[in-house]
Write a structure and sequence with these properties.
Layout (H helix, E strand, L loop, with lengths): L1 H16 L2 H30 L2 E7 L14 E6 L4 H10 L4 E5 L5 H7 L1 E4 L5 H22 L4 H8 L18 H36 L2 H5 L5 H38 L23 H16 L3 H29 L7 H24 L4 H8 L4 H8 L11 H29 L9 H9 L1
Parallel strand pairs: 1-2, 1-3
Antiparallel strand pairs: 3-4
Helix pairs in contact: 1-9, 2-9, 7-9, 7-11, 7-12, 7-14, 9-11, 11-14, 11-15, 12-13, 12-14, 13-14, 15-16
Length: 446
Amino acid sequence: MANKLGLIIKREYLAKVRNRSFIVMTILSPLLIVGMIVLIAYLAKINDNGTRVISVLNESAFFQEELKPSKNISYVHFDDLTLEQAKDSTNSLEYYGLLYIPNGTTVEEVAKATYLFAKDNPNTSVTQELELMFQKKLRQDRLQKLGVSPKQFSNIENPFEINLSTFAGEKSMKGINEIKAFIGGAFGYAIMMFIIIYGGFVMRSVIEEKTSRIIEVIISSVKPFQLMLGKIIGNSLAGITQFTIWVVSASVLMFFAVLIFGIDLTALSSNSAMPHNTMGTMPQLGTMDNEMMMYAKEIYDIPWGLLIFSFFIYFILGYLIYSSIYAAIGAAVDNETDTQQFIFPIILPLMLAIYVGFFSVFSNPHGPIAVGFSLFPLTSPIVMLMRLPGGIGEGGVPLWQFLLSIFLLIITFFGIVSLAAKIYRTGILMYGKKPTYKELIKWLRY
């Protein structure tokens, strides 16, 4: 049996890696991925370099010093013009908009009557920046009426961040749980994409052999279960080969792209894309280096060995479970068109794992939803990886949860493989009829 299984695995692996489309996509995919990232970074850089010009018609005695140019906005002041003349001038000069500040006796009165005129709905970052400027001036004016001096107001405006520490006395970092969950989510997302892409390879391989009637010859010498298992392992090895080549070549290409073209990948997460009301929580420039060093240390302290080891465990078990289902579907249908009714129920748990995992693990990695989905076999390969960057043991995932999730995956794998083998055994010799869910249940009872 082992010899026959080895021959099937070898045949499936060589048939896949020698395929012309496999070779072409192995070469092209890293080029396309790196090219897309570089293009997005370049376009984001160009987009950030554009400063919006806003003309200002200020008829009041207020907001003279507050209208200072920033990274996003520059101001051009109009004097001795009517509102209509200012609008016409703004349009003819093709400025982004006109900020009209009417005359008034108080800051409150002037601010409430102020308008921003633009051709279309203005950008959110522009309106937020202007609103924050007006809000600060209004707050300052209100406090001065209560007897607060400008110096005292400056002290009031100083930001505050609460000190964070563990019970062991180590300083905690704000947002580090989200960063760890995002890193684990990246591993989980890689598993999901691998399952979807290479599970489909198994399904299409079964359909091709079934429609060409080669399957009738093959099963005369091997058992259906051996054939199904050989296809799963052979295609998974081919997928791992391609995936490894992608990672290595894409990393090398990205390094040279950054080195040669000077692409700034941080443009993809520029502060300009952040809501301005969150900027006050960012660390001051004087403490930025210390903060970054502490974040770097936290990321360095992530148990990468455990994370990578767990990635391979969950990757293998998750792929074996889902590819068994894909193989059963391939055996149950005659062409790829008929697979559509069965594909969505397979992909649904993976999508659910990604979205629910991000929402639950980000907010509370030890909450009941996060724990439940990290134990449920069809979602645990993704959700558990989101929780594991926090480690195992105190403060991280309890050891019993980690071991239980792997145990449930193994039990589920044997259960699903046995059920899939029944569908496979019956379905590979069925032709010309679209199976229904009711018929699949009958096949499971044979």
